[in-house]
C-alpha cells in the first residue's frame, strides 16, 4: 500500500494541525490519520514514498518544536499495518487471538509491524489512542504457533522501550469473543 509511514504526536491540538499542514506542503504524502487523541494530544500519521515521508516528518518535528511528544519513521512498513490502522482488514474466521497493549501510539505501530514481519499472521486492528488515554493496542490472528511468534517479536520491541502494558494470547476464542473482535 505505502512503502513508509511517519507519525508525529504532539501535546497541542493547534500545533498538531499546523504540523500536519507543514508536512503536507513539504512533499507528496498521504494523511492516514490526523486528529485529536486522548488525553488532549494530536496525532498526525502520514504515508508515502520513503524519502517523502522522511522529509515531511523532519519538517513536522521542526515545526512542532517542544510540543512534539513522540515521533516514528518506519520505512518499508508491512502491507498489513495501514489497513489494520484504518480497520479495513476483513477476517472470515478467528483462529488464535493475540493482543498487545502499549503505552504509546508509536510503539503500537512498531509492535504491529514487528509482529506481522515475524510470523504468518493477520493483523486485525491497530487501535491508536482513540478513547484509550493515549495507549494503543494490536489484535492479530493465526495459528497458535504463529501468533506466539508474532506476539514475542512485537512485545520484545516494545519491552526494550519500556512501553509494554500487557500482552495475551487466547488459543481458541469463544464465539462471542470472536463476534466482538471482528
Describe the fold and architecture.
The chain contains six helices and eight strands, in the order βαββαβαβαββαβα. It has two domains: 4-75, 2-Layer Sandwich (Alpha-Beta Plaits), CATH 3.30.70; 81-181, Alpha-Beta Plaits (2-Layer Sandwich), CATH 3.30.70.1710. The chain has helices at residues 13-26, 50-64, 81-85, 105-118, 144-160, 175-181; strands at residues 4-10, 30-37, 41-48, 68-75, 96-102, 122-128, 136-142, 164-170. The radius of gyration is 16 Å and the shape is globular. The two termini are 22 Å apart. The protein is an alpha+beta fold and 182 residues long. The relative contact order is 0.17.
Tally of individual helices = 6
Number of strands: 8
The end-to-end distance, rounded to whole angstroms, is 22 Å
Backbone structural class:
alpha+beta
From the spread of the alpha carbons, the general shape counts as globular
In the CATH scheme, what's the topology name of the largest domain?
Answer: Alpha-Beta Plaits
> What is the helix content?
25-40%
Q: Mind telling me which CATH architecture of the largest domain this is?
A: 2-Layer Sandwich
* Spatial strand sequence of the major β-sheet: 2-3-1-4
What is the CATH C level class of the largest domain, in words? Answer: Alpha Beta
Looking at how many chains there are and whether they match, the oligomeric state comes to single chain
Mean pLDDT: 93
| CA gyration radius, whole angstroms | 16 Å
Number of separate domains: 2
- Biggest β-sheet: count, sense, barrel? 4 strands, antiparallel
Give me the CATH superfamily of the largest domain. Answer: BMC (bacterial microcompartment) domain
Order of helices and strands: EHEEHEHEHEEHEH
Low-confidence blocks of residues: none
Amino acid at each position: 500500500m505505502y512503502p513508509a509511514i511517519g507519525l508525529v504526536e504532539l501535546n497541542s491540538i493547534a500545533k498538531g494541525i499546523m504540523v500536519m499542514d507543514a508536512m503536507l506542503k513539504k512533499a507528496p504524502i498521504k494523511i492516514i490519520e490526523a486528529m485529536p487523541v486522548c488525553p488532549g494530544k494530536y496525532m498526525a500519521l502520514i504515508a508515502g514514498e520513503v524519502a517523502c515521508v522522511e522529509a515531511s516528518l523532519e519538517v513536522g518535528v521542526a515545526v512542532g518544536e517542544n510540543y512534539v511528544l513522540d515521533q516514528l519513521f518506519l520505512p518499508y512498513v508491512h502491507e498489513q499495518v495501514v489497513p489494520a490502522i484504518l480497520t479495513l482488514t476483513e477476517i472470515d474466521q478467528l483462529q488464535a487471538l493475540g493482543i498487545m497493549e502499549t503505552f504509546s501510539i508509536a510503539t503500537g505501530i512498531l509492535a504491529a509491524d514487528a509482529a506481522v514481519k515475524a510470523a504468518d499472521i493477520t493483523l486485525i486492528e491497530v487501535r491508536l489512542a482513540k478513547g484509550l488515554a493515549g495507549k494503543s493496542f494490536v489484535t492479530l490472528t493465526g495459528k497458535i504457533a504463529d501468533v506466539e511468534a508474532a506476539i514475542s517479536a512485537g512485545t520484545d520491541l516494545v519491552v526494550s522501550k519500556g512501553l509494554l502494558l500487557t500482552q495475551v494470547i487466547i488459543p481458541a476464542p469463544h464465539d462471542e469473543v470472536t463476534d466482538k473482535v471482528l
